[in-house]
C-alpha cells in the first residue's frame, strides 16, 4: 500500500471515528459468543522549543500527529476462546518514519483449567521497576513513538502458560523478529546520523526468521512477587555501526546479535513500601558478557493530599556492566528520583515526575507525565522531557536540544 | 435472707423470660451488650455462609456537591474462601469510563493483615502488586473507601449492641462496631441489622476525630438460592463534603463455577 494512500485512509477513518462518536459496539451474538469493538483516536501536539541541530532535521517547533488504535474482540465458549485484533497507526506531520502502522495484537487465546495458550501477535510485559524496563525482552520497542521505551511492536509468538500451586511457567516460541523503529532524517530525537533500517544486519543467517525461545517462571510467596526468565535468540537492542547508504551518505546500520540472557525480577510489598529489583546476565559472541541491574523502592504517603490523594516517592539505581562494543545504554551508572501524585478524584488525575542523573558525568534528564479525564470518552495527557549537562560521551548527546512538551487529547470509542 | 429473696426473684424473672422468648438462652440474662452485639453479627455472618461464588455488574454514579455526575461501570467476581480467619477473593473489571476499560483489580482479603492486591494495566499489559495499606482511600474517586467494599468479615470488628429501633417498615438491632484491623479510617461504625433476616440496612461511619463522616443506606434486597440476601442499591452520602455515590448492582449470579484458578495474577491479565 502506498504511503499516500495509507495516509488518506488513516485520516478518513479518524474523521469517521470522531464524527460517529459513540461507535463502541458490543454484540452478544448468542449466549455463547460475544463481539466487541472499541479503541481510541488521539491527537498529539509536540512542541520543540529549540532549533534542530542535526543535518536534515526539521525544527518541528510545532509537530502534530494523529493516532488510531481500534480494538476488536471475538469470544466464544464463554470467553475460553478468544480472537483479538488491535491494529495501530500514526500519521506524523514531519517525519515519514514516525508515520507508521503496526499490528499490536492479532492472536487466538485458549484458556483451559490450569493452562492457556496464545498463538499470534501479542504483547508481553515483564518487570517491576519504573524508570527502566531491564528484564522486559519479548517485544521490540517502537522507539519512534516515545523515548520511554514503553511502546512496543506486536511480536508473533506461541506462548504456552501452565499455572500450578508452585508457580506459573510460560514457554515462548518467537518465530519472527521485529526490527526497532528509528526516527527518519526529518525527525527529532535521533542520533547525529540517520539509522538506515533497510540495511539491518543479523548475526543469524536466518536473519529475522531465526526462531527465538524464552522461558519464564513466576510465583507469589506472601509479600513477595518473584520472576525468573531465560531468553535465547536475537537481541532486541541493536548495535549501531557506521556505514553508507545507496547515495553515499554516512548512516548507522543496526546489527542484531544472537544472545543468551538470564533475568530475575522481584518485588516485596511491605506496608507502604514497594521494594524492587531487576537484574540480567547477558552473553553474546560479538561482545563481552555483562550483568546489569535496577534496584529501588516506591514509598507512598497515603491520604497526604487532603486526606484523599497520595504522594509516592520513587528511588531507583541503575548499574550496567556492558562495555563499548555492546549495544549502547544510557543507564550505565545512574540514579532515578521521582514522585507520583495520585489525586484519587473522580477524574483519576495523576502526575509522575522524575529525573535520571549520572553522578559521574552530571548528565541529567527530566521527565513529567500528567493525565486527567475530561469526560466519559475524552482524556488529556501532558508529557515533558528535558535534558541538561549532556556531554559528548553520552548516548543522549545528539538529542541534547530535543527538549519537548507533548499534549495528547484522546477520544475513546 | 435478703440475698435469698433476691435470688428467688431472679429465678422467677428468668422463668418468665424463658417462657416469653424461647429463643433466648438461660445465659441471656447475664449477656453484656458486647456479647449481644457479637451474637447479632455472628448470625448475620452465618446466614451468608456457603454462597460459593458470585458475579455481578456494578454501576457507580458519583455526584459532587454541585450535583454533577460521573459514571463508572464494572463487573465483580467473588470467590468465597471458607473459614473465619481468612477473607474472600475478588476480581473487579472496569468497563467505563472508556479510558480505564480493561483495567482489573484483584484482591485477597485478610482479616487482620493487609489484603494482597494487584492491578492490571491493559495499555502496558502490566500487572502491578500494590500496597493495600490505603484502606481508607477512595475507591475510583467515589465516596466508598476500599475498606467499605472489601469483604465484610466477622472478625474485622468488635461489637456492642446499642438498642432496638424501627428502620423503615422493619425492626432493627442497632450495633456499634469497632475495626480491629490496622489503618482503618474509622473509629467506629454503627450498623442497623433488621430482625427478620439479619440484613445490614444502614451504616454510619465515624472518622478518626469521632465525628459522623458518611451514611450508607442499603435497599432493593433480593434473595438468591433461597438463602443469600443482596442489596441491589447502596447509597453513600458524605456529610462533610456533601458528595454522594450511588452503587447499583444488576445481573447477580451465584455459584457460577468460579475456581481458585480464576483469581490469580495470570487470570488477572486475561480478565474480561
Structure, described:
The complex is a heterodimer of chains A (413) and B (272). With 413 residues, chain A is mainly β. Chain A has a single domain, classed as Porin, CATH 2.40.160.10. Chain A has one helix at 3-20; strands spanning 25-27, 34-47, 62-76, 81-92, 100-112, 115-122, 155-164, 167-174, 201-202, 212-221, 224-234, 239-244, 250-256, 258-270, 273-284, 290-305, 309-320, 333-342, 350-357, 364-373, 378-388, 404-412. Chain A has an 18-stranded antiparallel β-barrel. Chain A is globular and about 60 Å long. With 272 residues, chain B is an alpha+beta fold. Chain B has one domain: Lipoprotein localisation LolA/LolB/LppX (outer membrane lipoprotein receptor (LolB), chain A). Chain B has helices at residues 2-20, 33-46, 146-149, 265-269; strands at 53-63, 69-79, 89-96, 104-108, 116-121, 126-130, 157-167, 170-179, 188-194, 200-206, 212-224, 228-238, 244-254. A 13-stranded antiparallel beta sheet of chain B has the order 6-5-4-3-2-1-13-12-11-10-9-8-7. The interface between A and B is large, with 47 and 35 residues.
Note the total helix count of chain A. 1
Structural class of chain A: mainly beta
Helicity of chain B, in percent? 10-25%
Q: Helical residue percent of chain A? A: under 10%
Shape call of chain B: globular
Structural class of chain B: alpha+beta
Q: What is the H level of CATH, i.e. the homologous superfamily of chain B?
A: Lipoprotein localisation LolA/LolB/LppX
Order of helices and strands of chain A: HEEEEEEEEEEEEEEEEEEEEEE
Secondary-structure arrangement, i.e. CATH architecture of chain A: Beta Barrel
- Indicate how many domains the architecture of chain A comprises: 1
**Order of helices and strands of chain B, N to C?**
HHEEEEEEHEEEEEEEH
Q: Do you know the CATH topology of chain A?
A: Porin
Give the spatial strand order of the biggest sheet of chain B.
Answer: 6-5-4-3-2-1-13-12-11-10-9-8-7
Mean pLDDT of chain A: 92
Q: Major sheet of chain B: size, sense and barrel closure?
A: 13 strands, antiparallel
**What is the CATH topology descriptor of chain B?**
outer membrane lipoprotein receptor (LolB), chain A
**Largest interface, counted by CB within 8 Å of the partner chain's CB:** A-B, 47 and 35 residues
